[in-house]
Every structure is written in C-alpha cells, then in structure tokens.
User: What shape does this take?
Amino acid sequence: MMIKQQNAFSHCKFEVPEIIFGRGLLSQVGSCARRLGGKKIFLVSDQGLFKAGWVDQVMQSLLDSGLRFAYYDQVTPNPKDWEVEQGAKEYIRHEADVIVGLGGGSAMDAAKGIAILASNGGRIRDFEGSNNINRPLPPLVLCPTTCGTGSDVSQFAVINDTQRRCKLTIMSRCVAPDISLTDPNTLQTLPGEYIGTTATDALSHAMEAFLSVAASSLTDVNAIRALRLISKSMEKAVKEHSPEDLENLARASLHAGMAFSNSLLGIVHALAHPIGGLYDANHGSVNAVLLQEVLSYDLPAVEDKLPELAFGMGYRTGGDTTSAAEMVQESLNRLLDASGAPRSLRSLGVAEEDLPALAKQAKQDICILTSPRQAEEDDLLAILKRAY
Amino acid sequence: MMIKQQNAFSHCKFEVPEIIFGRGLLSQVGSCARRLGGKKIFLVSDQGLFKAGWVDQVMQSLLDSGLRFAYYDQVTPNPKDWEVEQGAKEYIRHEADVIVGLGGGSAMDAAKGIAILASNGGRIRDFEGSNNINRPLPPLVLCPTTCGTGSDVSQFAVINDTQRRCKLTIMSRCVAPDISLTDPNTLQTLPGEYIGTTATDALSHAMEAFLSVAASSLTDVNAIRALRLISKSMEKAVKEHSPEDLENLARASLHAGMAFSNSLLGIVHALAHPIGGLYDANHGSVNAVLLQEVLSYDLPAVEDKLPELAFGMGYRTGGDTTSAAEMVQESLNRLLDASGAPRSLRSLGVAEEDLPALAKQAKQDICILTSPRQAEEDDLLAILKRAY
Assistant: This one.
C-alpha cells in the first residue's frame, strides 16, 4: 500500500534508570537518596498523597536514613510553569542536594522541571524540545503512585506553559531519574476514577510505542508485556481494586514507560499535548478519547505488526491481518469501556471551534515524528472531528 | 510437590547500562568514549579481532573523535588474573581515562577487571564475591563481538584465578559498563564453531534467568525474547552465517544479558565456573554439556513456568505441564544439536576423578543461590555424572 511507512530506524538505543519495584518499598526511598549522595532532600508531592499518608512514609524513610528534607506540594494536575519555577527557588533556598518526586505524572514532571531549573537556571520554557539542557541535574528519585504516566523511567517532562496555554515537552536523557522506585501499595488509595484513566495512559504508551517507527526488539518486549498486563487486569482493578490487579497495572505502567521512553510515541500524544495545554484536561481521559480513532488511522500502515499486537491484547491469531485488526479494535474498545474513561472530546469540554488550532499545534509536536503513518494538519483535524 | 521452591524474591530491581545496537555502529565508539569524558582511551581486545580488522575500525573511530588511545591485547579465553593485573598497570602507565572493551566475554571481562584494579588497586582476587568494590571505576564502553556472554550489560566479571585454578566471580553494579554498544556486523568474521557455542551461552543465560527464583516480569520479557530469537535463528546462523540470523543472535545475547544480570543464574553456571577454571574450557561448550541435565533436575520445581518457556522456544501449549516439559526438552535438544557444541563432559577433556571436587566448588558458587531447585553437593555430583 502507498501509505505503508517503512521503519526509519535501523539502529536503536535503549536507556532506562535503575528500577526498584515491590510492595512496601517506599521505606527504601531514604536509602536510595542517601546512596545518591543526598544530605538534604527536596521532596515534591501533592496534597492528595499527603492526606493518604504516603508523604509521611517517605519523610519517615528519609529520617530513618539520617537525612534532612524540605517538602514542596505546590503541584497541580498538568503542572504549571510557575509551580516549577517556584519549586526551583525553594530548592535553592533550602540548599537541597537530591530531589524525590512522589506522585502521578504531574508531581514527577514537576520534580523533573525543578531539577532542570535548579542546576540550569532560567525559565522552564527555555528548555523546550530535544536536548536543550546543558548542565547535569541534581540526583533524582521518582516514585509513581498511579497506573499510568511512565515519567519515572522516561526521558520526557511535560509542563504547562500558562502564557501560551500549551504543554511544552522537554526531551533529554538527563531528565530520566537516577532511580525509579514503585511501591504498588500506593495504588490502594488512588481514587477509583483515576485507576482507569491512568491505566489508559499506560495503554496508549504501550500501543504507540509498539507501533512507533522507532520501535525495536528492546522496546517491543516491554510494550507487549504492558498490554498483556493491562488486558488481564484493567477491568478487575477498576471494579474491585484488588491488590494483585493494581500491582499488574503498576507493572504495566513501568513496562510501557520503558518502551515509549526509547521508541517515542505517535499521534495520540501529539494531539493530547495541545488539548491538555488548552483545557487542563485529564491526560489519560484525553488519550482514551483519541486512541481508537488514531488506531483506525494507523491501521493501513501497521498491518505486519497487528498479529503481535493482538497477541499482546490477549488474542491468538493465525497471522491473518484482517482478523488481527478486528481483534485489536475490539479489545481496545473493551478496555476503554472497562476503564470508565470518557469517550468523546465533547464530553471533556473541548470547543469544536478550537479543533483546527489543536490540529495545527499537534503537527508541530515532537511525538508526530515517530507516528507509523504520516499525518498532515488535515488528517489530524479529521481525527479530532471523528473523536469529537 | 515437596521439591517445589517458592519464588523467594517478591521485590525486584532492574538495572541495565545505556544500550546502542545496530549494524555499522562500531564507528560510534569514539563519540561514546568522548561523551564519557575520555581524552586517552585504553582499548582492550584480542588478536583475532585485530586480524579481522575490527580493532582498526575502533581505533579509527577514536581518532575521528579527536581521542588518543593505548591498545592492550594480552587477553586469552577465560581471562587470567595476571592478564588483568598487567593491563591495569598499562592503563595507569598510559594515564588513560576511559576503557573500551571489544570482543567476546573474555576481552570484556578483562576490560572490567582492568577497570576495577585501575581505580581500586590490589589483586583481582581481592574483589571476589558480591559488592566488594569501594571506589568508582573509570568509564567503560563494551562492544560484544560474539553471540553470547552478555558481559556488555551484566553486573558480573569472571576472571580465572590461576593459582587456585578456579574462576572467580565478581558481582557489583559498578562492573556494569556505562555503555553497551553492539555492532552485529562484527559477527560476520566470527569463526563458525564459535557461533553455536556462544549462542548456547546466551541460551543458557536466558533459560537460567527465566527459571531463577529472582526472576521478575522485567527479566522474563527479555529472557523469553532471547529464547524466541535463538529458536528462530540458531540453525540458520550456524549453517549459513546469514546477516539477519547473526543479528538475531546478537540481539538474543543482549536480551539474555539484561535478564540474567538482574535475575542471576542457576546450576548450569554454578557448575560451569569451576569446570572453566580447572580446564580452561570454552564456556559455551561447558554450558551446552550441562544444560539438558540441569533442566531435567529443575523440572519438578518449575512446572508453572513451563508453558511460557515452551512458548519462548517456539511451541504453543494449552497449559498442560507434562506436554510443555516435553516440548521444552525436545526444543532444547534440537537447539543444542544445531549449535554443533559438544554434548558430554568427557569430550571436553574433563577427568572423571575431578567430578567430586567440581561439585564441591559449585556448591559455593554465587549462581547456586538463585537456582529454582535447591541442590546439595550430591545432587550436583549426580548431574555431573549424568552429563559425563
């Protein structure tokens, strides 16, 4: 087919931080921070996690390791430039030396932004794009507490530029933390509606990473494992909050993060970034709305990958691409239903007249570069309209 | 069953170096060494690779990046303590600052040993065991040129103690290199007999890592991918040396290395270390001889893992463990036949009267700790006798 796009990357690279995973391991944050040379730790989290008691656990762990700390919780969903800039001032004022981020993508991306400014100075928008960070960051430990994001292993930080009302994406190997530490116990206090939406973020990371033109065998194994875990546990985790299924989703988030950090993403995220910037909408929900339409758009360019994708989503095929495509679509639909996430842009409060501007911004997003099927502004607008 | 051993590790960690993989990428060694702060590079390789022209390519890449270098090729299979100690003296005499190891497990483990002594001083045997290295090593880039080993990603170095006539295993996160760079083109000059034997090393890494009690979802995905690649390409790579199949084996070695470095190994390697130490035998060949007998011993303790293992080895099962066991054994037998590796300890020149001493040493080897089925000296001796 004419629209089939060849894999443009015959070479691959794979880089992930040190990973620690297990129930109860939040008690190890102190020894991790100490091992990285910390004496005074800058702990970044949010008020929800404080109320749930997890911030206390981390503070106790820091004290147990003989460390002092300063606590910063001025972080909101879709973290804002000024929150990060304020945090960096606090970091410097407290003369801290290691940063610990505890939370979902917002708290962790804020921690990354603070780390960038702490050693590089300037405004966060100065670092937008690929490889624009010159000075090494302070050591960073990130502890995810949702079923999505992957920020704890990724080379990305996404911060809201409140002046331009858009998300700015910072990509650099130095924004990957030194240590990613997941304690799946933290998911037990995650409000129900966030289980499905953050797992949908991990689902879109895994699907886009697998279909990316920069995918490799190193990223594929992680993307497929993430899909299998999500397929197995999404429904039960959302309905019953069982520890096993929540742990599977935490594991899926980690695998999906390892995949997309190295193979990058595609149209779902290229579109989700401007939408999140303009509307302060929940990132997982935006992905949920876009995922099926983007998959339909990508299908003709990814036929050879569909049998493995279908396998990842819990089906067995004999390699017939038509049926694999149907299986993938059906399975995706089932997972999105189970997630409880919204299913239309309209329901997220997006205004129809904004769609052309969103398509225009998405065309400039770094994530568009690795889409398996090329997309012009018109194509992106058509996807948005179908998802509306 | 009574002999079923529970997975003792509910927590997991996963740590791999930066990985770069692709044909022709040996030309990037210079920029990697430069990025690590190098000005004068200590290049460790062997005479076979020099003759094949790969050492020249690396030298050219270093020069192209404006780097000076010293070259050290006093490395033999099963690298010896004195080779490493001599290399460290040369490193210091040349005032080098980054080490590049190019070769199979021997050249890479020698490079690791030199790095340990360069910054820590002493004799290599002082560092035997787990976490006995105190000072950080010089930056290290490792470039594998065989289908096995995994030393380029692992936290292990294995050096022959020529006085005690045994292999000493050094395990520490700091012996993992900074960068693992694989150029699968280098396999095209690998002598035919080494394709099968080094791929058998990767095969045993993948199988032991998957069955290890310290295995996790992070290591499993890599172990299974390694097995699939080996199952697909072993026979053709050995017979036809086709670039695609050789590349698959290089990729398998990488995946298997990522797996075993984090989940550790089992009885095959616990036995292979003393045999390699006493007889200077080819490591892949020793594994080939032991693998089937150790699998038979392990089977009753790993029943629940067999369906996935059989899948990794190219079969589909309905989850019935008896048939999965048969499939795994049959598939392993086919792969070992295809590898062309020897199939008995006797044919490797091992003396029957040495078996009790070898079993005794194996019981002390660090690899025995993660075996899925406990083994006493008697059990190890029985395995050796069956493999004789």
Summary: DSSP finds 14 helices and ten strands in chain B. The longest strand of chain B covers residues 98-103.
